[in-house]
Write a structure and sequence with these properties.
The structure is a homodimer. The first copy, chain A, is an alpha+beta fold. Chain A has three domains: 44 residues, no CATH class; 112 residues, PurM-like, N-terminal domain (60s Ribosomal Protein L30, Chain: A, 2-Layer Sandwich); 166 residues, Phosphoribosyl-aminoimidazole Synthetase, Chain A, domain 2 (Alpha-Beta Complex), CATH 3.90.650.10. The first copy, chain A, is 30% helix and 24% strand. Chain A contains nine helices and 14 strands. In chain A, strands 9-11-8-12-10-13-14 form a seven-stranded mixed β-sheet, with helices on both faces. The first copy, chain A, has a five-stranded mixed β-sheet with strand order 1-2-7-5-6, with helices on one face. In chain A, strand 3 and strand 4 form a beta hairpin. In chain A, helix 3 packs parallel to helix 4. The radius of gyration of chain A is 20 Å and the shape is globular. The two termini of chain A are 37 Å apart. The N terminus of chain A is likely disordered. Chains A and B meet through helix 1, strand 1, strand 2, strand 3 and strand 4 of A and helix 1, strand 1, strand 2, strand 3 and strand 4 of B.
Chain lengths: 350, 350
């Protein structure tokens, strides 16, 4: 019917994967393969190939960052946030991970017919509060409505523009042997907050999502003169996916210690009940920072002085070996390779 | 469960509209009310309040345009295009309507679990061809997968960044009494191409969508020194919505003549069968241009010299009256008010 000349064969073997699976969106190996083997080669350009959280380009002598994310979290409201605040924090954080100061967001709503109007209003109000507290403006938008049964309440896309106001290249290729690996707090709360609601788990206290804008933390690090090499927020696939992505992009071995990685007891307990690995669970207000050893203590002090970095700590370092792998030293002192999950541990977590 | 302080009441009266309707995404009065009464006041800022196709802001002495659109067209493939090419053309055109040269796009995919992998590949390939021919790069992206039955094959969001390389303010507020109103070709083909497929209508020849990137046409107008006052692409709600939007934003009366508005016979016939008004049907490669009368003939000559403007013509003018309304003079010479449709004429056309 239509003049298609898609002469090239589908780069994902149809025999193995005739259909898109939930796991193709899960932050693990299948998603990385879909992106790396289909999207990146198809849209081939240097900026996309950098495969960082944001794309950084120069315009009129000014470096800008540009990023996009769609938010399909289920349920729409969860302890500590909702799809609206998440859609602001997630995109603000992707800009911050390139070392950019977030300025402007777009908001694209795909609403399922029948969504209660006051649910939409609660979410829009929440987006606005999140934007105001992150210091960004939502300056353009789009509204689509799809038939009942062809969506799931509400999906929100936010794209963002930020400005890079320093001369560092904050990206996986800047990671160097000897770099310290830091995180800004305990891991896995966002994912477990959502799973607890979905699975109806009851704990003594409610696990609240860590969803928050971390751009303020990044600007504090920059202001303190920390030579940041790389930043990456610990979203889909959790710490495990992030470390593997950076290790692969930098072609370096990373080594982390299990006893140094902060996970709250209630999160650990919920993970055990559900058979999940907390190192693979998404956060939405946590990131890993790669900084030179000489700046590590100062960076930790800066992070710890900020309310969103109170639990900051050092979890490992970048090794000399030029092979892409992640080593985890367990509490027992045994070292093993920390491999990326192949599939979908937690569907629709963001 | 969650610390919401949405103390302000929902600005859309819940009594009248307890739920979001398909019509809230249809480009007519209900959508404008949702945007104007909920989104714009909630996200209040000057850039959003301009309510143009893109938001234009200045950074480091350079004016930039930023826009977003989600594409939920059904079916995914239609004569003359698919959701992928549409997602590129639509966002490129929104940038062009602010007089910006489109540079970079983002691509956010929301895939329904079970989408055939080669369908995704066909669409991705089509996006790439459309981007290449429009001279833009897709530099950042996101992939989400939702459970089977919670989406509809594929939704794509594209956001775009462009650069404004002239000193004009191309926006509704620049429209002046006496301006000529031009269009770059016949109307309604995109919407009717899709409706013909959906309704199984058969004609002697297939109606093909007019989906195309019009940024080249805009740059030709600028190069020729045409003092463009306003541009608006004729998407959801068609010419009728666009004229009403501009009239309202400029607080001026617009007058157009039915006999001057180009609609192909097959499109007119399909509209008659389905009981649709071709002036309310979406195009995806057509726009209205408001230019000073002294530049009108030159603008028409520039448009007509371009393959995508071969059918360019003048359809009316801006009147002296400072009241927001659109007058349509019929073939019989009778003048009536051309009012915006309230609801959803053509759901999920883009």
């Amino acid at each position: 019917m239509q003049p298609l000349d898609f002469s090239a064969a589908c780069p994902i073997p149809i025999r193995d994967y005739p259909h898109v699976l939930l796991a193709h969106g899960g932050g693990g190996k299948l998603m990385h393969r879909l992106i790396g083997e289909m999207f990146v080669p198809a849209f081939r350009n240097d900026l996309l190939e950098a495969q960082h959280d944001s794309s950084v380009f120069e315009l009129a002598g000014q470096r800008l960052a540009f990023t996009t994310d769609s938010y399909v979290v289920r349920p729409l409201f969860f302890p500590g946030g909702d799809v609206g605040s998440l859609a602001v924090h997630g995109t603000v954080n992707d800009l911050a991970m390139s070392g950019a100061r977030p300025l402007y967001l777009s908001a694209g709503f795909i609403i399922e017919e029948g969504l209660p109007m006051d649910t939409l209003w609660r979410i829009v109000s929440s987006m606005q509060r999140a934007a105001a507290s992150a210091g960004v403006q939502i300056i353009t938008g789009d509204t689509k409505v799809v038939d009942k049964g062809k969506g799931d309440g509400l999906f929100i896309n936010t794209s963002g523009i930020g400005v890079v106001e320093h001369s560092l290249t904050i990206a996986p290729r800047s990671v160097r042997p000897g770099d310290a690996i830091l995180v800004n707090g305990d891991l896995g709360r966002h994912g477990m907050a959502i799973m607890a609601v979905r699975e109806g788990l009851e704990f003594e206290s409610t696990i609240e999502s860590d969803s928050a804008p971390v751009s303020g933390l990044v600007s504090e690090l920059l202001r303190a003169g920390v030579e940041i090499h790389c930043l990456r927020d610990l979203t889909r696939g959790g710490l495990t996916s992030v470390l593997n992505e950076i290790s692969e992009a930098a072609s370096l071995t990373l080594s982390v210690e299990e006893t140094l990685i902060p996970v709250r007891e209630d999160v650990r307990g919920a993970c055990e009940i559900l058979g999940l690995d907390p190192l693979q669970v998404a956060c939405e207000g946590r990131f890993a920072a790669f900084v030179p050893e000489r700046d590590a203590d100062r960076a930790l002090a800066v992070l710890a002085a900020h309310p969103l970095g109170a639990g900051a700590c050092r979890i490992g370092k970048v090794m000399e070996q030029a092979s892409a792998r992640v080593l985890l030293k367990s509490a027992m002192g045994v070292q093993r390779i920390l491999d990326m999950a192949s599939g979908e541990q937690l569907p629709r977590i963001c």
